[in-house]
Write a structure and sequence with these properties.
alpha/beta; Alkaline Phosphatase, subunit A; four-stranded antiparallel sheet; 16 strands; binds 2-deoxy-6-O-sulfo-2-(sulfoamino)-alpha-D-glucopyranose; binds calcium ion
């Protein structure tokens, strides 16, 4: 150590690299660590940093408050497996091969995924939680993943290839695994990338028993809960994701769950794997809730509002546990001196409808499911309290992590590093429009296939298959997307310009109607066997 560094060390100061400050277990490399936390279906409407009317999430907020919060982060395809493939590859679904959750859940072989590159560059890499791809995790030194969607209670994990059931609640267990890996399974002298993928708050929204007492008061109803889809096309009318019609009383809302069906099974699938203490606590709680209401004498609107309350309370209870566990992680990082040189990301695999348009689930290119929360904390480059309105996408995550690790983005990645947006500005030449393409139809919730473009003010959508309908929304005059203005003469110019931009983006990203047709032909026999479900 030279003299000046010795003085700095003696004084306990850090001048050159904040990463070296008083760290018990921090590696000496300047390459930052990456902790990527992704929940499943966590809507920005349920994060207090995003102005939620529903919940306080102080620990999740801390990531954004001490770093950057993006107000315009979009996904390319609002569904789990495709979104996870986009995250890993930085490529659109038509190029990854993983287009849907049903039959194309595999990333084509030979495609580079960013963890592989980090691993090659000396990073230790780990993933815990939901994986939801048919590929084995590639590029990870350690993986402990749920099978398919996983379970909330006593879930099965595949840990480096070996399957075992773990007793407890998924959100706690996933964080336990993350903390164990951080504290005792990695080499503190090397940088790391840890991906923490929650199952929560995915359907069927089973809360931790400790959180059942939360949200006893009713929550505000969304303005569009009673949407009748007038002014929209067939796709909005024919979906199967309505709280009113498609949310099941026993399995989703836990009504009458003390009963068993004719084959002797509990009505909630996961009850079969619970221990009796877990199950009895849940049964006691929901049975008490059942006794408080008389749905038989409700009007239709009252009934929908009641269903919404039952759903949203459990959804928010699941998020309680996510927030508490993010708090555990942040405390650990703080205690270990890892907060300075670690990039911490909080996001979701897509957005989610919390009763807007009367819906739950996602898939559509409308705002609530096209957008996803994104917050990043990295004090070396991001000032606390930064807010960015730049249009960023889950396509950009891989290029961002690679740049931060000092690596070059492979030519086939289609995203752009978000580093130039870290100061809160929209850099000149930054994208002005995002391109979207959703494929799974027929399938869960019967959302018809569509692609489209969203600019700062407008959204143009094409339900190309089956119905060949177009929709156009003016987000400034109609932020709730209630009125399709595609055929209104006053919007003819806007429509033509958007169509032109849409075709240019398709070209840029190497997508096209003919490619879509090809996929349709490939998927048709499989989807027709599967059909629509909800
Ligand atoms: C399950 C859910 C659906 C949900 C998909 C996809 N049904 O099939 O409601 O849309 O997952 O979700 S359930 O009754 O099994 O819960 S995703 O987040 O994985 O894409
Ligand atoms: Ca999801």
């Amino acid at each position: 150590m030279d003299t000046s560094n010795k003085i700095i060390a003696l004084l306990g100061l850090s001048v050159i690299a904040p990463s070296f400050t008083g760290c018990k277990s921090e590696h000496k490399s300047r390459q930052p660590n990456i902790i990527y936390i992704m929940s499943d279906d966590h809507a920005y409407q349920a994060i207090s940093a995003y102005g939620s009317r529903l919940i306080q999430t102080p620990n999740i907020d801390r990531i954004g408050n001490e770093g950057i919060r993006y107000t315009n982060c979009f996904v390319t395809n609002s569904l789990s497996s495709p979104s996870r493939a986009v995250l890993l590859t930085g490529m659109y679904s038509h190029l990854t091969g993983a287009r849907d959750n049903s039959f194309s859940m595999r990333i084509d072989s030979g495609i580079t995924m960013f963890p592989m590159m980090l691993q090659k560059a000396g990073y230790q890499t780990a993933i815990v939680g939901k994986w939801h791809l048919l590929n084995n995790p590639l590029g990870f030194d350690y993986s402990s993943i749920l099978i398919d969607q996983g379970q909330y209670y006593n879930p099965d994990f595949v840990t480096n290839g070996n399957t075992a059931r773990v007793h407890g609640y998924a959100t706690d267990i996933i964080m336990d695994k993350a903390l164990t890996w951080l504290s005792s399974m990695r080499d503190p002298d090397k940088p790391f990338c840890l991906m923490i993928h929650n199952k929560a708050p995915h359907r069927n929204w089973l809360p931790d028993t400790t959180d059942l007492g939360e949200f006893s008061d009713d929550l505000p109803l969304p303005a569009t809960l009673y949407d009748d889809y007038a002014g929209r096309g067939k796709a909005a009318h024919e979906q199967m994701m309505e709280i009113a019609k498609n949310m099941h009383l026993p399995s989703d809302l836990k009504v009458g769950v003390s009963e068993k069906n004719k084959s002797g099974h509990w009505l909630i699938g996961e009850f079969q794997r619970m221990d009796s203490a877990q199950r009895n606590t849940l049964i006691r709680f929901y049975t008490r809730e059942d006794a408080r209401v008389d749905t038989a004498h409700m009007t239709h609107r009252e009934y929908v509002a009641w269903k919404y309350q039952r759903f949203i309370k459990d959804y928010l209870r699941c998020i309680r546990s996510v927030d508490r566990n993010v708090g555990r992680l942040l405390s650990y990082l703080q205690k270990e001196g890892l907060l300075e040189n670690t990039i911490i990301v909080y996001t979701s695999d897509q957005g989610f409808y919390l009763g807007e348009h009367g819906w739950f689930d996602k898939r559509f290119m409308y705002e609530q499911s096209l957008k996803t929360p994104l917050m990043i904390r990295y004090p070396a480059m991001i000032k606390p309290g930064t807010v960015s309105n730049a249009s960023v996408m889950n396509l950009d995550y891989a290029p961002t992590f690679l740049e931060l690790a000092g690596l070059k983005e492979p030519a086939n990645m289609q995203g752009t590093s978000m580093v130039p947006t870290f100061n809160g500005s929209v850099p000149s030449g930054w994208r002005k429009a995002v391109y979207y393409h959703y494929y799974e139809y027929p399938g869960w919730h019967a959302v018809k296939r569509h692609y489209g473009i969203r600019t700062e003010r407008y959204k143009l959508m094409h339900f190309y298959y089956d119905i060949n309908e177009w929709e156009l929304y003016d987000l400034k005059n109609d932020p709730d997307e209630m009125h399709n203005v595609y055929s209104e003469p006053g919007y003819a110019q806007v429509r033509d310009s958007l169509l032109n931009q849409l075709r240019l983006l398709q070209k840029k990203y190497m997508d096209s109607d003919s490619l879509a047709e090809k996929f349709l032909e490939h998927d048709k026999p499989m989807f027709s066997r599967f059909g629509n479900v909800y």
